[in-house]
Amino acid sequence: MPMDLARLTEITQQAGAIARQMWHEAEIETKDGGSIVTVADRETERFLREALRDLVPGAAFWGEEFGGEAPTEAGLWLLDPIDGTSNYAHGIPFWGVSVALWRNGRLEAGVIDLPDLDETLVGHIGQAPTLNGEPLPPVRSGGIEPHELVGHNFRSARAGVGNARLFGAFVIEGAFVATGRLRALFAGGESLYDVAAAVVIAEGVGLEISDRAGRPMDWSQYLSGQSLPDWQMRPPIR
Questions:
Q1: What is the mean pLDDT of residues 187-198?
Q2: Distant-in-sequence, close-in-space partners of 39: CB < 8 Å, separation ≥ 6
């Protein structure tokens, strides 16, 4: 059945509003491995799972806080209820909600809501991505100049190009490269639910997505929970 993209956007924005309203309840707990979680992370994911259940009936869920299921014939929702929890918990506005749908062997749709920046990005295969309802322009092709900003995450090695920036949340770095504020993004070590929505949006503006050797990413390899290798989003050279 066709995706109700307007409803998906509304649900993601509602999740962002819930998280924003719960900021004062952001009591920090430490997970295995040293990352942190708050009550808001869990409540936001609970809301998403319930609200999305009827949008694609029969689809499975894989979220950061409550684990994953195998994809069904109907699809698989990929949820990061609060990406950038450390930023969120400490009052830094670089965090957001990421929701994507895997269906028919591909990443079909994705929405990123950045509540503290008042920005919502929406992507769907075959459609131009939007920022707050306005179409995003295609990325400018060509190389990366030394003065241009490029994003990195905590695990990615410096690629030796551009002027590196690290925001502490993939949802921010993914949104910023799709909107042209970052020229490229070098990443690695994430789970698929961290990156899926940003990938849909980035592909829609023409960014080239590959591993560091330039090979296309096969996202189906990471549906079982395997961490992503070193990979990149870059403007096309042509």
A1: 96
A2: 22, 25, 26, 27
Handedness of CA 220, 131, 80, 149 (dihedral sign): positive
Give how far Cα 22 sits from Cα of 67, 161, 169, 180, 198, Å. Answer: 22, 39, 19, 31, 25
E-strand stretches of 130-234: 130-131, 134-135, 149-152, 163-165, 184-187, 208-211, 231-234
Helix, strand, coil percent content, the chain, rounded in steps of 5: 30, 30, 45
Residue type, 31: K
Q: What is the pLDDT of residue 39?
A: 84
Q: H or E element: which one contains 194?
A: helix 192-204
pLDDT band at 41 (very low <50, low <70, confident <90, very high): confident
